[in-house]
Specification:
The protein has 519 residues and is of the alpha+beta class. It folds into 4 domains: 107 residues, no CATH class; 164 residues, Nucleotidyltransferase, domain 5 (2-Layer Sandwich), CATH 3.30.420; 73 residues, no CATH class; 80 residues, no CATH class. 45% of the residues lie in helices and 15% in strands. It has 19 helices and 14 strands. The strands form 4 sheets. A 5-stranded mixed β-sheet has the order 3-2-1-4-7, with helices on both faces. Strands 8-11-12-13 form a 4-stranded antiparallel β-sheet, with no helix packed on it. Strands 9-10-14 form a 3-stranded mixed β-sheet, with no helix packed on it.
């Protein structure tokens, strides 16, 4: 169907003697349509319009909703998919397809019930990339009709056109960007090889002729995730066509015909729209549905990694049981946990280089270790074994009264004087090294040796004690017999040594030289 303006133009060409084929070519309309209106008089055309106006339309019951949408958008030309999606969300199942709705909107325009302010848009085709190669990211802002300011994070996988969008109610920071990227990786099911992202100050400190200097947190994040970065120049949409279009797509197809009063409502509606519309309809670029293509692209994405910036989340945590010594096993190495967690279950979270340990019930972080590259290594932190539940005075008293052996209190007192900053650690070493089954004779010998040679510390005392314990039951004769083979070897070695002999004249000449120098 043609508009009144087009009908008048056809009739003007007819009066000028134009053939129907020429009119069709000039007006770029179908020849059959040209012929239909070429033969139609003005009276017939008015009757035809009246018949259209009163013809039963399946979308008539939604006309007021449609007109309201266009009125709220200053009668701009809207995406038919967006209008259809809005009606479907608001009213449920619709009586026709998008094509039927397009025809009905056309009818409203033809009958002058709807007049639009049209603007032409230009699009540019961008090259296709391999699956799993690239994720494009951009930001936007939008104010709803009720005054709610939304800050928009958008991302799209370049191959499958699978999209992820998030809203927040404040300007973006570096940490916001990192958390949105982590959520995006979860949503798409993996990590791409590279990011194409706008040059925003939340991630870029400065640029020196293309040498990008990232913020500290973002630099650590891209290293942690193993990402290659491609940063677009500011106001350069040619380098990020897909995601630039996505920002506009979100604004025009989702936000322009909806109003939200809270960020929670906006997010809830957005997630439904992503599944139903943004990823659920055929992409004009690929001619396929992104929701189906993502299954292929996920096979090329890298597996998810834990991040230091998500250690507070329950996602990615595992349970471990601490042993009697207060250690947990992670990748064949052992790591200490604080006092009081022996034989208890804790939660761990590992990144590429770090281990974080959390209380199972409160979720509070209780320990942090750098992961060992050597399997089988035992990693202890001194602070974990300091028995903070006991005061230093209590520990000192317990250690001083542990043994009645002569010189014990003297040794303990001298050790505390030498290591005043490590009294608690010395007490803990004493209680751990010396149990109730200590041999008093060996301990007395060890105390005498350590006091005499000033080798003060509980570790030194314990090593000396173990030496004297090893000598028990062995007399002097046994020791000499054990040393006999070694002494014989030394004797044989010395028997082969020959001392050089010089003539006495050599020494006389040397004395003569020295005396001459002295004179």
């Amino acid at each position: 169907m043609v508009t009144k303006t087009m009908y008048k133009k056809i009739q003007e060409f007819k009066k000028k003697g134009y053939l129907k084929s020429k009119i069709s070519k000039e007006m770029k309309i179908d020849p059959a349509t040209t012929a239909k209106y070429y033969r139609m008089s003005e009276t017939e055309y008015r009757e035809y319009l009246n018949s259209l106006m009163y013809r039963d339309k399946s979308f008539d019951q939604y006309k007021e909703d449609m007109l309201e949408v266009y009125e709220c958008n200053d009668y701009r030309k809207l995406s038919m998919a967006a209008v259809y999606d809005y009606l479907e969300e608001k009213c449920g199942e619709l009586p026709g397809t998008e094509k039927s709705l397009r025809n009905y909107i056309g009818y409203l325009r033809e009958t002058n019930q709807l007049e639009l302010n049209e603007k032409k848009r230009r699009y540019m085709k961008v090259p296709q990339l391999p699956m799993g190669k690239q994720l494009q990211v951009d930001f936007g802002e939008y104010s709803t009709k009720s005054g709610l300011k939304l800050y928009i994070f958008t991302s799209v996988l370049s191959a499958s056109r699978y999209k992820y969008v998030a809203f927040q109610g404040r300007p973006f920071t570096t940490m916001d960007l990192i958390h949105h990227l982590l959520d995006c990786f979860d949503y798409v099911g993996g990590i791409p090889e590279e990011l194409v992202i706008d040059q925003d100050n939340v991630m870029v400190v400065s640029e020196n002729h293309g040498d990008i200097i990232y913020t500290g947190d973002f630099s650590y994040f891209i290293d942690e995730m193993g990402l290659s970065m491609y940063v677009c120049r500011k106001a350069d949409p040619e380098t990020k066509g897909k995601v630039e279009n996505l920002v506009k797509y979100v604004k025009h197809n989702f936000l322009s015909i909806r109003d939200f009063e809270s960020i929670e409502d906006a997010r809830e509606s957005l997630m439904r729209w992503l599944v139903r519309r943004a990823n659920g309809k055929i992409s004009q670029a690929t001619k396929r549905i992104p929701l189906e293509m993502i299954e292929e692209e996920r096979k090329q994405l890298r597996a998810m990694r834990n991040s230091i910036y998500r250690k507070g989340s329950l996602i990615g945590r595992e349970e471990r049981s601490a042993d009697d010594n207060g250690r947990i096993s992670v990748d064949a190495s052992q790591y200490s946990v604080p006092e009081g967690y022996e034989k208890k279950v804790v939660e761990i979270y590992t990144t590429q280089t770090k281990l974080y340990v959390f209380d199972r019930y409160s979720g509070e972080q209780i320990a942090e270790h750098t992961l060992s590259l050597i399997p089988g290594k035992v990693i202890n932190k001194r602070v974990h074994n300091r028995q903070k539940s006991k005061s230093i005075e209590t520990l000192k008293e317990e250690v001083l009264n542990k043994f009645s052996v002569n010189k014990w209190q003297e040794f303990v007192g001298e050790t505390f004087k030498k290591y005043p900053r490590y009294v608690r650690d010395q007490c803990i070493d004493a209680l751990r090294c010396f149990g109730d089954d200590v041999n008093n004779e060996s301990l007395d010998q060890a105390l005498g040796f350590c006091l005499e040679h000033k080798t003060l510390s509980m570790r030194n005392l314990y090593d000396t004690y173990m030496y004297y314990e090893g000598l028990k039951g062995r007399n002097e004769k046994d020791i000499l017999l054990k040393m006999t083979p070694q002494l014989k070897a030394v004797t044989r070695y010395k028997s082969d040594i020959r001392v050089a002999k010089r003539d006495l004249s050599v020494y006389k000449s040397l004395v003569g030289i020295i005396m001459g120098v002295l004179r």
